[in-house]
Design goal:
By secondary structure, the chain is an alpha/beta fold. The protein has one domain: 3-Layer(aba) Sandwich (Protocatechuate 4,5-dioxygenase, Chain B), CATH 3.40.830.10. Helices cover about 35% and strands about 20% of the residues. The protein is built from 8 helices and 9 strands. A 7-stranded mixed β-sheet has the order 3-6-2-7-1-9-8, sandwiched between helices. A two-stranded antiparallel ribbon has the order 4-5. The radius of gyration is 16 Å and the shape is globular.
Length: about 240
């Protein structure tokens, strides 16, 4: 059963070493993300699953101790998903799960098993919901750390350039995350999300499936778009 969830953005610049001189710009977002992850620790789960968007090579399950790095972003920094395992899993974490692992390492998380799941953007809403239900049923007390970003089309300098639909899409996501509205998340338009380059759509719909009938309450801790990309932080408990 799902007992808690934290929703966080996954840009590698959330890691100060990657952001370098721009790190202070994201101090508020970073602090909110750490607060949200703290909610997971307080729930004392039996199992924690970090869910994040991934390209083909990073999709599927990642076991405890899986290693990721930020070398591709110019920083010689490695992270581990939960406690180190011997031997360490061979598969490397995708960037979104690496950011999640970095957040977990900076909180007093309980000693629950930690696993990762890389989710592909094309995954249908129905399949996302099924995956979420399976995760929620996997232990008596399950927590989710859900990584993902909103639209990347909020300004002309955004990665996806400007799209007038982006602000309304992000506003709907923010309302749904703040209200723990699983129906609204499940109803997100996958084609629109793809057009707006919203990497979090499938992951949020996994959360919606996991939280169905769980009776969780949500709180939106942060919403901003500093680089023309929608970033959200929410806690469900």
């Amino acid at each position: 059963m799902l007992v808690a969830a934290a929703v966080c953005p996954c840009p590698p610049v959330l890691v100060p070493e990657v952001a370098s001189g721009a790190a202070p710009e994201l101090d508020g977002l970073r602090a909110a993300a750490l607060d949200a992850v703290g909610v997971l620790a307080a729930a004392r789960p039996d199992r924690l699953v970090v869910v994040g968007p991934a390209e083909q090579a990073g999709r599927g399950p990642h076991g405890q101790g899986a290693v990721g790095s930020f070398r591709g972003f110019g920083v010689d920094l490695e992270v581990s998903l939960g406690a180190a395992a011997e031997p360490a899993p061979e598969r490397r974490l995708p960037p979104s799960l690496s950011v999640g692992a970095w957040l977990l390492a900076r909180t007093d998380f309980a000693d629950a098993p930690v696993e990762g799941l890389g989710v592909g953007e094309p995954l249908s809403g129905d399949r996302c919901a099924q995956v979420g239900r399976e995760i929620a049923a996997s232990a008596e007390r399950v927590a989710l750390l859900v990584m993902g970003d909103g639209s990347a089309c909020r300004t002309v300098k955004a990665p996806g350039y400007y799209d007038e639909r982006a602000e309304d899409f992000d506003a709907a996501v923010a309302r749904a995350l703040g209200a723990a509205d699983t129906a609204a998340l499940a109803g997100l338009d996958a084609e629109l999300a793809y057009a707006l380059k919203a990497s979090g759509r499938a992951c949020w719909q996994v959360l919606a499936g996991a939280a169905q009938d769980a009776g969780l309450r949500g709180e939106l801790l942060r919403e901003e778009a500093p680089y023309g990309v929608g970033y959200f932080v929410a806690a469900w408990s």
